Amino acid sequence: MSNETIRTGRRGRVAKPPEGDGPVAVFARRLWELKRCAGDPSYDVMRREHGALASKSALSAAARGAQLPSWTTTWEFVRPLAVGVLGRDEERVRAEWRQRWDRAAAAVPAPAVVLPVERPAARAGTRGPGSGWWALVAALVAGVALVAAFWTHADRPVVRTIAEPCEASWLCLYRNIGFDDMNFRTQRQNACWNLADYHLRDAVFSYDNNTAITARFFDSQKNEVGDIRAGGSSQDSSALLGAQWFCTGSARP
Length: 253
Fold this sequence. Notes:
The chain crosses the membrane at residues 133-151. 34% of the residues lie in helices and 15% in strands. By secondary structure, the chain is α+β, with helices and mostly antiparallel strands. It has 2 domains: 6-107, no CATH class; 171-248, Gamma-B Crystallin, domain 1 (Sandwich), CATH 2.60.20.10. A 4-stranded antiparallel beta sheet has the order 4-3-6-9. A 4-stranded antiparallel beta sheet has the order 5-10-7-8, with no helix packed on it. Strands 1-2 form a two-stranded antiparallel ribbon. α1 (23-37) packs antiparallel against α5 and α4 packs antiparallel against α5 (90-107). The longest helix is centred in the middle third of the chain and has 22 residues, at 131-152. It is globular and about 55 Å long.
């Protein structure tokens, strides 16, 4: 691992890449390297001149590697640099970084559940002091763990971040209901995309079409399974499950 450091414009301060081999540190180091490739602008400049919509503190924390940033913060870190400064294709950048973020999120260990310390068992026919309280705590912990396990594996996605608005003249697809977690947007007409490339296969749960064109969804057999009319919008499009291809205008997969 490189020990290279970069001096910032402020005298005496040295910016260091996050250290460590864990998934969060590796992901943060990629953000740090992207920022360096884009000329190492300050977080204020990223917000003021390049349009980053996250706060300065959130952007700074994302590159420190103490914890994995949300996807929304990650994208507001990446988009202004990779797309705005380096001029890379926005849809390709979004797909690449979303894949990296998903891998990092999957590799982050779940927080351990702290169970109450066991107390010596009371002798037969007696009740130890506070035994009822400990039983209640144990039951509550078990209940919380059960609910968490069920919720994590629920079929429907969980809204984890604020809604991301779809700008005028764009067509946007979201991975969560309520216009949350935008994974795809386009202005192109008569083109097709494989939704799996954007982690949206069987997972388009809301959409917003601010264009004058109709878009269609197709399954793996290339049969049409749904469409989005010009100006159409839905914050809960569960009926689109099964879609693998997405095409605009007259294009077909």
